Every structure is written in structure tokens, then in C-alpha cells.
Amino acid sequence: MRNWRYAIAAAVGVAVCALASTAPAAPKVGQQAPDFTVTTFGGRTVKLADLKGDVIILNFWATWCAPCRRELPLLEEYFEHYSKYGFQVLAVATEDSIPEFKLRPLAAELRIPLVKRLKGPYRDVGAVPTNYVIDRSGKIVYAQAAAFDIDALNALIIPLLNEPVPESPPTTAPEAKPAG
Description:
Blueprint: H1 2-22, E1 37-40, E2 45-47, E3 55-61, H2 66-82, E4 87-93, H3 100-109, E5 114-119, E6 130-134, E7 140-144, H4 150-162
Parallel strand pairs: 3-4, 4-5
Antiparallel strand pairs: 1-2, 1-5, 3-6, 6-7
């Protein structure tokens, strides 16, 4: 009787280890940002590639989080001022926040896109707010569970906005093959 319990426990352990090894790695500072796709409350679908050349903050927040409630209006104001220079903010409400229908009025008030669905390896945040900052070249330059204040935003974002937008590699025409 005991042997089958150990066999099941061992099988479950192997299955959990196999699933864990196939999960995408958490995004890390210094690496290229893993791709993501978001769907906003406005119905737009946005991929990381759509924001190529922009400086991006991927902000994870919750309605019950006091630092988040202070940070969101700051990010909104920053976005209004710097979006014309290639600055983007995507605000992702965590799943333990409030139901989607209660977020719609807030989404209608904000200029920064409020995200209702996110696909990508950014989901497992340990605390809120958590911010990922992606530079113009698509590299993660900041990943931290902490709220921004104006001084931190200025120190991090302004130098990134002053960087030139990387040029796309030129596309070359395929070589002509000699007639055979």
C-alpha cells in the first residue's frame, strides 16, 4: 500500500520538475527583453516589437497597494510629458487586484494604456509595484519591486530618452542566381 503512494509522489515530483524546466526564464537586467503581448482595455493588442526604439516601463500594480496608487498618477504625468520622445508605459493590474469591470472607469481616465491581458514571462512578480524598464535597443535596464518617485524616474528615464534610436538593419535584396 505504501509503495504506490511513494510512486505517485515521485511521479508528481518528476512532472513538477519537468514543467519547471520548460517555463520561460524570468526577465533579467542586461538581457534582451523577452517578447510580450498585451491587450489593453481599449482593445489594442501591443507587442514588444511594436514599441521598438521606445523606452518602455512595464508596470505591475494593484488597487490595494498604497505605493502603486501614488506611482500610477506619476507615471501618467510622466507619460503625458515624454511620450512624444518615445516613452511608453504599460500598466498591468495584478490578478489579485479588483475585477476587470471595476477597472474600466480608471482605464477610460488614463492616457497610459491599462493592460487587461499579458502574455509573456513577466507574470511572476514577487511584489507590487514591480517595474521593468526596457531601453531603446530592447534591453532590460531595470527590474525591481519598488515604486518610482520623480527623482528616480528622472535619473533613469531621461538618459535613456537621450540615447539615439537604433537603426534597423538594412534589408538587402536577395542575390540574383545565374541562369543555369
